[in-house]
Amino acid sequence: MICGVLAVVIVLVIRLQPTPPPLPSEITLPDGARATAVTQGDDWIAIVTEAEEILVYDRLTGRLRQRVQIAPKSAATR
Asked: Domain with 40 in it: what CATH number?
């Protein structure tokens, strides 16, 4: 019984690890950037990176349209 519970816990830990979201094939991130979230609008795709940055790409061309730096928590709450 102990082995069974241990096996279930191990499987849950392996399955619940965060994985980077899949990116459309036409999108190329800058060197060293890793996506943590992806959202889409009618004609754009926004990607949040580990560097606390939002990259907005054109959906049709895959070209970078806008780059927004997210303010640190302490600065945003002042």
From this structure: 2.40.10
Residue 30 belongs to a domain:
yes
43 found inside a domain: yes
User: CA-based Rg of the chain, rounded to a whole angstrom?
Assistant: 18
Q: pLDDT of 12-59, one tens digit each?
A: 888 887 776 677 777 888 898 888 889 989 999 999 999 999 999 998
Residue 46: closest CA among 17, 13, 76, 24: 24
pTM for this entry? 0.66
65 class by beta-carbon count within 10 Å (0-12 exposed, 13-18 middle, 19+ buried): middle
Q: How many domains does the chain have?
A: 1
Residue 28 included in any domain: yes
How crowded is the C-beta side of 29, counted as CA atoms within 13 Å?
22
